[in-house]
Design a protein that fits this description.
5-stranded parallel β-sheet; single chain; 12 strands; 3-stranded antiparallel β-sheet; Rossmann fold; alpha/beta
Length: about 250
Amino acid sequence: MTATILLVEDDLSIAENVILALARDGLECRHVTLAGEALARLRAGGLDLVILDVGLPDGNGFDLCRTLRGFSDIPVIFLTARTDEIDRVVGLEIGADDYVPKPFSPRELAARVKSILRRSRRFADPPPPAPCAPPAPSAPPRLIAVDEERALICCRGVPLELSRAEYLMLKTLAARPERVFSRGELMDAAGLAEASLERSVDTHIKALRAKLALLAPDLEPIRTHRGLGYSLIREAPMREVPRTGIGDGTGDSG
């Protein structure tokens, strides 16, 4: 596996151990200590994954990740001495792929990097979303159509802009409509690390519901099964959208 990793870490002893562990697995690592320098490297491109410390001398790793997500979906692993649940949830909500608390094993971190890279290869430099194949003249667009070759999912013929985790979760749900998938099963399907919180699944489902609601406001495609998980409804005929407005129908708790 040939990949270039950007390590953003101001603790030089930690950085040296991480760089050595990545090199042993054949991964090239570029190291910076400041958020500003990291942002410049990221805008220049040519990187496959970012290992990002939350506490940096010139800024906050969460803020850097928010800025990064404005122009790139490169995988991000957070490193932090902060282990509060809220910090982990925030990290995942703003687009991190994994969250590693300090102290940690550099070899385990390298293994997580390789795992995320394997999952993200198909999403590297994707072509611009193109409309899904049109339905037969007499048939309405399908509610959910998965194009695995292009890693694309359409709702009623319109491509959805999805993160990797959202794509993999919705693809899993769409493969078996009405089948109830537990949060653990959806975490596995999306390749989320075991250390990730099950609440991160709820966050991704909430984001999916918001995107689907824009194209299918007359339906609630993803259903919550309290204490069990989530399912996708079977294909249903389109109904006229009420003119008086719609509810959000999220119901993410549980």
